[in-house]
Amino acid sequence: MTQETLLSVQNLQRSFDGNEAVHNLNFEIHRGEVVALLGTNGAGKSTTLNMITGNLKPDAGEVNICGLNVFTKPKQAKTNLGYLPETPPLYRELNVSEYLQFAACLHGVGKAQVQNSIDKALEICGLNTVRKKLIANLSKGFQQRVGIAQAIIHNPALVILDEPTIGLDPVQMQDIRALLDDLSNNHSVLLSTHMLAEAESTCDRVLIIDKGSLLLDQALQNLNSSPDKRVKLRFHGNPPVEALNAIVGCRSVSCSQYGNFMCRYDGADFIQQVQAQSLENNWQLYEIGPIASSLEQVFLDLVVRDSGVSNAQAIQ
């Protein structure tokens, strides 16, 4: 059965002052999925989200939400989108109900449906007990809940959350994770984070990016239970992805333009075949090593060693 595609990102690129922040990014999100966009600080996550939400124009590429182009049909596309940026767009002088009424009007919710939409968002986000309180007087955890409530007030198909648990204490983080799990019953969610525990506890699939390039797109279930072996390869002369895929036993190849490849394989002599092909085609293979199946180890092997980021900075 074909899955309905809610978000399609195709060949997305963006540079700032000649420095490439996002490079040829491609991925999709389907109905019912909760997907984590993982990367260290500065990997390109927020830039990617700003382009997906139409707040930043890409240098090249397309973003389609429910089949509608964000840049040629922005109003129609954004009716299907809810967005919580890293800094929630809250009006601290309003109480929670007043703010959600304002958000509902901005999202074009009909007058007859406004109160019902507010009540539903308050219930889903656990805000009924603070509905009359000023936002300025709420804890940071409750303010994050209000930010998520405004993102779902119009019942969008796709909800995008940029670092929704940043700055929260452990109890508040657990509450937000439980809320994200509830959201997945009615919405597809794209969650940007650099916290691996958050991705593992809330998401179905992970996208790992580094320096704006997609290194991995895989379901967590497959990542943790797949019998396939994984190996990291680095070359001075980067081979075509198609050439690695063609080697007998290769299941898939993830790569970046920085010479960092991850191959899933099940062939007994795959490694020997890679070495032989490298010698024959002058790929100049200079690093080869196994990758464990845990998300943490995959992340460390694909990102941390190449970026110069310490383990303590990357894993939180």
Short structural summary:
The protein has 316 residues and is of the alpha/beta class. Helix content is 35%, strand content 28%. The protein has 2 domains: 5-210, P-loop containing nucleotide triphosphate hydrolases (Rossmann fold), CATH 3.40.50; 218-314, 2-Layer Sandwich (Alpha-Beta Plaits), CATH 3.30.70.
The beta-strand count equals 14
Uncertain spans, ≥5 residues at pLDDT below 50?
A: 305-316
Straight-line distance between termini: 37 Å
Order of helices and strands: EEEHEEHEHHHEHEHEEHEHEEHEHH
In total, how many domains does the architecture comprise? 2
Fold-level CATH name of the largest domain? Rossmann fold
Overall CATH class of the largest domain: Alpha Beta
Tell me the helix content: 25-40%
Q: Main sheet: which strands, in order across?
A: 6-7-8-3-9-10
Radius of gyration: 21 Å
Percentage of β-strand residues: 25-35%
Fourth-tier CATH superfamily name of the largest domain: P-loop containing nucleotide triphosphate hydrolases
Main pleated sheet: 6 strands, mixed
Question: What structural keywords apply?
Answer:
316 residues, alpha/beta, Rossmann fold, Alpha-Beta Plaits, six-stranded mixed beta sheet, 14 strands, elongated, disordered C terminus
Tell me what the structure shows.
This protein has about 325 residues and is an alpha/beta fold. The protein folds into two domains: about 5-210, 3-Layer(aba) Sandwich (Rossmann fold), CATH 3.40.50.300; about 220-315, Alpha-Beta Plaits (2-Layer Sandwich). It has twelve helices and 14 strands. It starts with a strand and ends with a helix.
